[in-house]
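Listing S7. Sequence submitted for prediction.
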Amino acid sequence: MQASTDLHRDAWVVALRRDTLTRPGHPEDRFDRLVVEHPGAVVILALDAADRVLVLHQYRHAAQGRFVELPAGLCDVAGESPLRTAQRELREEAGLRAERWTHLLTSHASPGISNERFEIFVARELSDAEAEEFEAEHEEADMECSWVPFPDLLEAVRSSRVTDAALALAVMAYALEPRPETGSDARVR
């Protein structure tokens, strides 16, 4: 990288910069790339004993619509592990705690423009928890929760009725996980 210039940086979660690069071995091939800096995030596929998934319904301004999503949150607390972030977000957004946590996968949201990386966890053996002190504001103030049977959510993803990328990735990856023949309980590592 030859140079980097901040185009936007403030106290909010993301920043935008312009990097000037040269192609390795070709110093004459100089070009710019815009990069959205992002602290990373966690996504939680929370399943109850009946294999229903907790989903959130939330308006997203950039896409101009209301989306079905999974509980999720930013890795914006210094020194907090992704698992602890996931546990905190599940309490904040749904007032739930989970006894069993499994890391399902890691993904980059859009590596051509952002360094955002998210960790997807499966949360099982759910129970009510005291919600964290969290004051929902802006779009989150109108967020609603509901429970959807996993097969119905899988079909909604496959038919493109639900299009949130993190949710789709989590649901498809979980659908590929081996499960006991008898049950509603998934094998959780």
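Caption to Listing S7: primary sequence and predicted structure tokens for the chain studied. Helices lie at 82-94, 150-158, 165-176. Strands lie at 3-8, 15-23, 26-37, 41-46, 52-60, 65-69, 72-74, 96-108, 117-128, 144-149.
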